[in-house]
Amino acid sequence: MIYQLLKGATIQELKDAGLAPHYAQHDHGLFPTDASGVPFTVAGIGSLGDPVTDLHEDLAAEQKARATYEHLMNLTDDPDLIEPLKFLRQREVIHFQRFGEALDDVQNELNRKKYY
Length: 116
Fold this sequence. Notes:
Blueprint: H1 2-6, H2 11-16, H3 20-26, H4 51-74, H5 79-111
Helix pairs in contact: 4-5
């Protein structure tokens, strides 16, 4: 979508959109940042090695992604952007459901009586 949005954009259009700093370093290329321009880092990805804790982290990440896609959809009226965003949002819902099922399986296994 980034390439689709920037395709054919002139330098003046990029400046007018507040993207001059991005252009200076990355031209029309993709460079993952948050909405404030802070570059992506894995520092916020948590893993404790505990399956219950890690699955809760995964569930939260899917909900955050779903909300972000909804926010992006609210910022545009372009159907060529809204349709892929709807697909991506639905994918996050499915991921959330699958992580929830995995959490149920893990908790059932942890609660199962063990015989040795």
